[in-house]
User: Fold these one by one.
Assistant:
Number 1:
Amino acid sequence: MLEATKSHDTLKAGAEADAAPLNPALAAEAKIARIAVTVFPLLVVAAGIAGFLLPGAFKPMAPGVPYLLGVIMFCMGLTLTPPDFASVVKRPWAVVLGIVAHYVIMPGAGWLIAVALNLPPELAVGLILVGCAPSGTASNVMAFLAKGDVALSVAVASVSTLIAPIVTPLLVLFLAGSFLQIDAGAMVLDIVKTVLLPVIAGLLARLFLKKLVAKVLPALPWASAVVISLIVAIVVAGSASKIVAAGGIVFLAVVLHNGFGLGLGYLAGKLGRLDDKARRALAFEVGMQNSGLAATLATAHFSPLAALPSAVFSLWHNISGAIVAAWLARRPLSDATGGAPVRGATARDTSARDA
């Protein structure tokens, strides 16, 4: 999630600001997302260093990780609106393609990389678990910065999260069962408690406490950034003694995993004959994961070492995502067939009104 959870309203404002650049208030609002994307990796790096250098201070907090993830998912629920789900009905093919690509490419790539690099069982399961997690909402921010289809990005991220209690445990059982024993039933229950229920609670709060939620929305990216950074510090502290030996191979595995996701996600959109804006969105929806959930499940069901790929992924996918988004933003948008550039295209032709 950014893992700093984004404000969907902020992304809408940013898109409208592109269409009406004379409105300085909307332009300033859109900068929230950009600042959060810049600051978040720095917070995660600082948290990782703190966890490594001061494991005794963070290791005792391990039992609280599921509750911390619940806070992040509640924040995500607060950002969801009815138009997010209406987008699913309007464009079922694009959303289904994004969901299938996400839950096929990343789990498969995680398994292939784990086998190719001959990772130890705990690290292999951790990498596969990251691949089987739903999309992170940082992908929504990256899609916005890359001039991609934000409405599609939000729809895919939301649906992938809602179906995660069923899909994630089944995929982990199928792909990682040969490495370690998997209790899929317990994993389903954990995802329901730490993901589904908090998201639904946040969504209900958004519907029935609109004025109160409107006041706290600007603070959500920062609150989520701090919480996910704390999770990273706890995860790193739990495996601090093994990081020096395993850190290099884990970093290589994560870079490959994330790179395959970004590239093959864009390719999936191209093969599905989606327009360039949708392809950009799918690149981030496939390549960026809810690494907070993966770290939580790895810590609860396996070991702190199994959570190490999640911690590294949490840092790397925000750095790589920001770089790719900046590169794409400088490239002209192509037409629906991927041919001629679209002149004067804005960051989001499908505005909040069309979501």
Number 2:
Amino acid sequence: MSGPEALPELAAPAGVVDRLVTAGLAGVGTGGVWSVGDAGGVRGRGRSGVLGQGPYGAREMDHDTLFDVASITKIVALWPCAGVLRQSGRLPLDRPLGHFWPEVAGRAAGEVTVRQLLTHTAGMPLRTRFVELYGRDPAVILAGVLDAPLYRAPGTAVEYTDRAAVLLGHLVGSLAGSPLDELAARQVWRPLGMSDTRYGPLGPELAARTAPTEYEELAGTELCGVVHDPSARLLGGVSGNAGAFSTARDLERFLTALLDPPPGLPWGEEWIAESLREQTGGLEPARGLSWLCAAGTDPAEGTFVHYGFTGTGIWISRRLGRWALLLTNKVHYDREFQPLTDLRNAFRRAVFG
């Protein structure tokens, strides 16, 4: 099978990707932005539509639009901060947590490993159900996550659960001695010049260029600058599973750094290379560390992706030396995700083959 076209041809104005995404977003029913690039930076980008309905229709989508990136928080905040600890020898991937973290010794979570948390093979319960099970006190919720009986034996199945990232975010903050939002700003966002990326809630100036997400009954309005994910909201907006806001321009910097890590980056080449390899031993769906092997590809091809429930997606292939992003706020309109899934898959095929 021949490989994908060269990026300049793909990414040209009104070229293959631009036409595909513009038509696709019209069918999905949302505005959005896209970018593709390589180790040298951006090679093409485009935008389509407005931020949302009603008053949000007065502003067009752009590459400085802030998006609630939802589960991409796992990639732009949690994963690199875990990498800093891994590369400094403070975060063993294959020792049970209870062997080096006193807080979980003797608890259910003490049986699992960091690698299992990163690959979603830890056997933790699949749903969060935090209010139903634990109430609204963040300390009680975290205790509940640590104590919850495992759903199945660790290492026997790949089953995505936000509980893994909530637990790992707590562990990373505990070992590093700082909350995750401070760690991510210090170790990831500021070093890469990601000046707009942060945890919410956002102030009025930033919220004015933020794509809104869903209508929230308790708030009586669409969420805009406040995290959409209810579990992250219960934890004060700062969590390993969700809570970060970012722009296409910032994510372009982040993805470029995965192909050409800046000197001195404390979660650099070794961690990136280890993570962007299949780590699930033949279990499906195949995953790296935090990253998912892209649907429709063989893990050996090395194309990885992570999605956010709000409508965001990022892709990376070190083998091909290219990256891509497609950011929307699909949940602002509805939860009919199949058209977006179809667009994402077509976008991936066009850029990565």
Number 3:
Amino acid sequence: MKVKTNLLCMTAAFALAMPACAAGPAQPRSPKSATKLLARQKEAGLATITENAARAHVYFLADDLLEGRRAGQRGSRIAKQYIISRLREAGVKPLFGDTYEQPFQAYADQKLKRGVRFFVDADSIAQIKKHVHQRMDLSNVLGVIPGRRSDEVVVVGAHLDHEGMYADVAGDNIYNGADDNASGVTAVLQIMKAFAESGATPERTIVFAFWDGEEFGLLGSKFFVNHYADISKVKGYLNFDMVGGNNKPEDPTYMVYFYTDTHPAFGDWLKDDINRYSLKLNPSYRPWDNPIGGSDQGSFHLKGVPIIWYHTDAQPHYNQPSDEPNTINYPKLTDISRASFLTTWHLANDTAY
């Protein structure tokens, strides 16, 4: 009798300790609790974007040791390894296979004067190879955070190269490119880290792209859109090119916000987020019906992809050796990075879009 009593007690205790087994499989969260969790994850990601991180990235990428990050040269390769190290640290996987780099070659007819124009499309390369020509070995850097849906993709990108060094320039001959475009790379790195540390699985897959050869004619983004098998799945492209400058000293919060004009929600998102999070930004909203000029967003527009381009406009240091890290408006760069993280969050998660 004593044995039976002990067995009954043990059975009862085991049943109390295992309520999930008695009740069957755990039920999914309610839509309300899932929404609250996603909101907390968004806030956690936003909190990782800091002015100190912005300074750290820009001061490294625009240091003299990188020699202006000219495409195909040593400084550019160092910049790529820095970017790859940040992707690895955040746990963001390569987009293709086990390597973060997407190699490609660019060709141009040999000329003894300025005006060399490089191409990456197969037809042009075939013609160029018939003559004396130049070649550059380049590579984009690409990482991915898989979403719940693999049939819809958002791409966030910035070009990593700049003008390099000019031996015949008197005095400072390094074109450091702090604003153009260490600032843009910094924004994408901060957005990437914010998503990685939020713990959220986005609805749509997010690709983080760092383009090579932009200064030679948008080479990296052109190659990508022409060879990415899933280009028809891209729901939007966010571009960052020069987002740390001071075009209007009288208004240090000024920035320019280009977007495809058939998507007015892009403008509404930014207005709402600036108000909700008290971001110190004064955007000039510029819906654009044919956004092909100026930077890498043009490559995506030509493939029918809606675009957003964060920009702080040309400024006195543009394409000058004086484009140094100490000229960057870091509070503005930080708030642009925060705003663009929120924009990316909308693009990646808003099912109504």
